């Protein structure tokens, strides 16, 4: 009899490990990806942001990520602040514009912009999935952006603090390396979902960098409807 009970428990454990539903409860089988997988799955949704002056010279640069098939995208407000014209250089090298600023919050540095909708002969935009659950201390996090026009990079770290108060504003703190030009780029979780937006770095903490939370991004259009 004991051997039968032992065999039954072993079968249940094996089924749980494969993600098969047991007693109406399905085991969590959500995939977690490595940096190379994250990059391969998401880099086409990321783009280089170029802000131009009236004379068409470059005023500033940054990064962004597409979050809807119509070209709606996320970035950091300081990247597009007071812009006369904004262009996006896609991962395939195409330049599209003008890019519109739909909504922003200077206090949180969050901004929603919109790339021109793809034409009839243009390929559809790649889109990032948006994360719903809040970030937790110690989660792995990936930062992506363009320090140079044709040089997208990815860095890996952890969430040092998901809701730190910095200068009176809530910020994500991450150890993923951030360099100039990556501002506005995506912070991605282990499933490749948009979990925040790169904002900048801290002068008072070495190797700790700042992110805009999804809560602040979702306070803007088109999330706020």
Give your account of this protein's structure.
This protein has 225 residues and is mainly beta. Helix content is 14%, strand content 38%. It has four helices and 13 strands. It has helices at residues 2-17, 35-42, 77-80, 214-217, and strands at 46-52, 58-66, 72-76, 85-89, 95-96, 100-105, 110-114, 140-148, 151-166, 169-174, 186-188, 194-201, 209-213. A seven-stranded antiparallel sheet has the order 5-4-1-2-3-7-6. A six-stranded antiparallel barrel has the order 8-9-10-13-12-11. Strand 2 (58-66) and strand 3 (72-76) form a beta hairpin. The longest helix is centred in the first third of the chain and has 16 residues, at 2-17. It starts with a helix and ends in an 8-residue tail after the last helix.
Can I get a quick summary?
This protein is mostly beta strands. 14% of the residues lie in helices and 38% in strands.
Q: How many E-type strands?
A: 13
Summarize the main sheet: 7 strands, antiparallel
Q: Give me the secondary-structure category.
A: mainly beta
| Mean pLDDT across residues | 88
How many individual helices? 4
**What string gives the helices and strands in order?**
HHEEEHEEEEEEEEEEH
Approximately how much helix is present in the residues? 10-25%
What would the principal axes of the Cα set say about the shape?
globular
| Uncertain residue ranges | 8-28
Task: Provide the β-strand percentage band.
Answer: 35-45%
Strand arrangement in the largest pleated sheet? 5-4-1-2-3-7-6
Gyration radius, rounded: 20 Å
C-alpha end-to-end distance: 61 Å
């Amino acid at each position: 009899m004991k051997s039968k009970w032992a065999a039954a428990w072993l079968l249940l454990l094996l089924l749980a490990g494969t993600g098969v539903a047991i007693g109406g409860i399905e085991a969590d089988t959500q995939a977690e990806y490595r940096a190379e997988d994250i990059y391969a799955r998401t880099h086409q949704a990321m783009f280089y942001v170029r802000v131009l002056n009236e004379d068409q010279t470059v005023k500033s640069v940054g990064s962004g990520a597409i979050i809807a098939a119509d070209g709606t995208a996320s970035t950091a407000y300081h990247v597009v602040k007071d812009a006369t014209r904004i262009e996006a250089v896609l991962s395939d090298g195409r330049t599209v514009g003008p890019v519109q600023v739909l909504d922003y919050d200077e206090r949180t540095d969050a901004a929603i912009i919109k790339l021109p909708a793809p034409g009839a002969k243009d390929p559809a935009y790649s889109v990032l999935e948006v994360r719903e659950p809040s970030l937790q201390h110690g989660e792995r996090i990936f930062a992506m952006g363009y320090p140079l026009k044709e040089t997208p990079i990815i860095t890996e770290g952890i969430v040092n603090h998901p809701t730190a108060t910095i200068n009176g504003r809530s910020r994500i703190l991450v150890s993923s390396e951030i360099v100039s030009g990556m501002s506005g780029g995506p912070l991605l979780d282990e499933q490749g979902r948009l979990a925040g937006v790169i904002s900048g770095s801290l002068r008072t903490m070495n190797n700790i960098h700042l992110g805009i939370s999804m809560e602040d991004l979702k306070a803007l259009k088109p999330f706020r409807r």
